[in-house]
Amino acid sequence: MISRKDFLLKAAGVMGLAVVSPVLLESCGSKNPAADACTPQNLSEEEQGKRKGLQYVGKSPEAGKNCANCKIYKKPAKKGDCGGCELFEGPVHPEGYCISWLAIV
Ligand code: SF4
Where is the High potential iron-sulfur proteins family profile domain (predicted)? Predict the structure, then answer.
């Protein structure tokens, strides 16, 4: 038999975990940490709108198509850094993608 005190303590722990877990996961960028590093939060609404309009994502859903092999990707100065794109301002992840992907021929 569990005491009322133990029950309340366990319930509070479970509730706390349920509330805190999504916050911790979000702050860790656990969904795709590398892509998150190339997703700036301080872009103007216009620049955010451009990304949204082109359906830019930090991790390509298209096999064999990503920013690194797109014709208009601006390679970073240093390997491992975020690159850029000719179509909008700000950092772009090499594994990212948008609907304007253009094959290098
Ligand atoms: S056009 Fe799209 S796929 Fe190509 S580099 Fe820019 S964001 Fe990436």
Answer: 37-105
Domain containing residue 5: 1-30
> What tokens does 16 get?
């706390």
**Centre of ligand 1 from the C-alpha of residue 98, in Å:** 5
What digits encode the pLDDT tens for the residues 59-97? 999 999 999 999 999 999 998 899 999 999 999 999 999
Ligand 1 close to Cβ of residue 88 (< 6 A): no
Are 3 and 50 found together in one domain? Answer: no
Q: Is 96 in the pocket of ligand 1 (CB under 6 A)?
A: yes
Tell me the CA–centroid distance for residue 18 and ligand 1, in Å: 37
